[in-house]
Amino acid sequence: MIDSIQGLLDEHTDLQKQLADPAVHADQGKARKLGRRYAELNGIVEAYKRVNTLRDDIEAAREMAAEDEDFAAEVKELEAQLPVAEEKLRRLLIPRDPDDGRNVILEVKGGEGGDEASLFAADLLRMYMRYAESKGWKTEMISAQSTDVGGYKDAQVAIKTNSTDPAEGVWAHLKYEGGVHRVQRVPATESQGRIHTSAAGVLVFPEVDEPEEIEISQNDLKIDVYRSSGPGGQSVNTTDSAVRITHLPTGIVVAMQNEKSQIQNREAAMRVLRARLLAWQQEQIDAENAEKRHSQVRTMDRSERIRTYNFPENRIADHRTGYKSYNLDAVINGDLEAVIQSAIEMDEAARLEKLGQGK
């Protein structure tokens, strides 16, 4: 694999020339895509140079050690560094999910469990917001339907980064979070101290860079307007500013009511619709050819239970990767990196195995 990257090196050189052309930056969408690919290849180029430098240094050190034994220790040190550098390069050569560099729209929904489920949904949203803050990402609340107890029936947040490196992309980290998250704890309303189990759903969609990237015909849309409502169903707006958009070919429905203006709600709904359509298109490709699935860990089954948060034991367990730790208090406050890394590492291992099998 290491000896077959000349094509990638040539592509890196070509991208460097393209990005130096001011005309390319007139199309921000194209420039963004080229920049992501360049950042990805830049890591490969640097790792490749590191491997070649180590090989040259080892050869030179061996020649010197043959004349002076004092250089023997340097040979051993360099030889120990080489397999580490080669493994890093090998992992960088794993075909990357082309959406890894994208920002995301993340949605949490209260599931089974009533008020407790809505409170857990709020906990999950706060966990992701704090994790994003720790990564230096920006967050933007798109919509939220709160409950009387301070939880969320449904909330959507956009999470963004300024990095062009796909390995540091928001989707690269959060794409594994989609699914059912189960919580076991004593609800605040439980007078007997009994542990209840409830759940919340998480959906994660890569966000579309430019509206033109996803073609949507107005004839394919059914748009309804209605009056916004708050917790308990009471009206919070005297005008029909809430918007519900149904994409007829796919049946995808997006409703938005946070903004006071119907136009703003429509724009927000279209933004979410584009993200869902992008994910839907990829799911069709994945379903047709399982070998091309973006991720070996991320599932298309949004009803799959992926993780359990056990508060009495302060334990968090990921059912896909086998990750388990007893620092739930830290994780629920945004210290999510180790949990996410377990998914990334499992995915990389599966991809490496496929490469090794020549698939």
From TrEMBL:
SMART domains attached to this UniProt entry: PCRF
PTM annotation (N5-methylglutamine): residues: 234
UniProt feature coiled coil, ranges: 44-81
Keywords on record: Coiled coil, Cytoplasm, Methylation, Protein biosynthesis
InterPro entries: PCRF, Pep_chain_release_fac_I, Pep_chain_release_fac_I_sf, Prokaryotic/Mito_RF, RF-1
Record has Translocase as a keyword: no
Subcellular localization: Cytoplasm
Protein task: Peptide chain release factor 1 directs the termination of translation in response to the peptide chain termination codons UAG and UAA.
Family, as annotated: Belongs to the prokaryotic/mitochondrial release factor family.
Protein name: Peptide chain release factor 1
The organism of origin for this protein: Rothia endophytica
Underlying gene: prfA
